[in-house]
Amino acid sequence: MTASRFALAIASGFLANGLLNIHPALSVLIGLAVLAAMYLLQRTKVGFWIIGGLLSVFWGLVFSLMAWEFSGKDMVWTYAVLGLGIVLMMGLHIHARRRNASGEAVG
Domain extents for the chain? Predict the structure, then answer.
């Protein structure tokens, strides 16, 4: 999950600079603020479900977009991979949270 947080923080910095024409130094600070906010929110029970759920849906959409493209735009494969991707990623989020709560090293 750490990689997803870093990716979203980097993306927010790039988008702040590219779309909003914010100075690069301020864009870096925006990226760091997003990273810190996601880290702090992830540590709460409600934040875990919000961020874990949103990231699971995001990765499910990425997987289903690849399935849609590779299957010749077949919607059956697209929806099947979307559902499986969301379930798989949510399971990985829950597994990582349990390992982290038990004190095991994650990653």
Answer: 1-43, 45-107
Q: How many residues does the chain have?
A: 107
DSSP 71: T
Write down the pTM of the prediction. Answer: 0.72
12: its two tokens: 């927010």
The pair of structure tokens assigned to 29 is: 């600070």
The pLDDT tens digits for 49-64 are 998 898 899 999 999 9
Q: Which H or E element spans position 31?
A: helix 24-42
What is the distance between the alpha carbons of residues 85 and 98, in angstroms, rounded to a whole number? 20
Rounded to the nearest 10°, the torsion over CA 47, 90, 4, 80 is: -140
Q: Rounded to an integer, what distance in angstroms lies between the CA atom of residue 12 and that of residue 89?
A: 22
User: Which segments in the chain show pLDDT lower than 50?
Assistant: none
Written as six digits, the tokens of 21 are: 């024409």
What is the pLDDT at residue 57?
A: 93
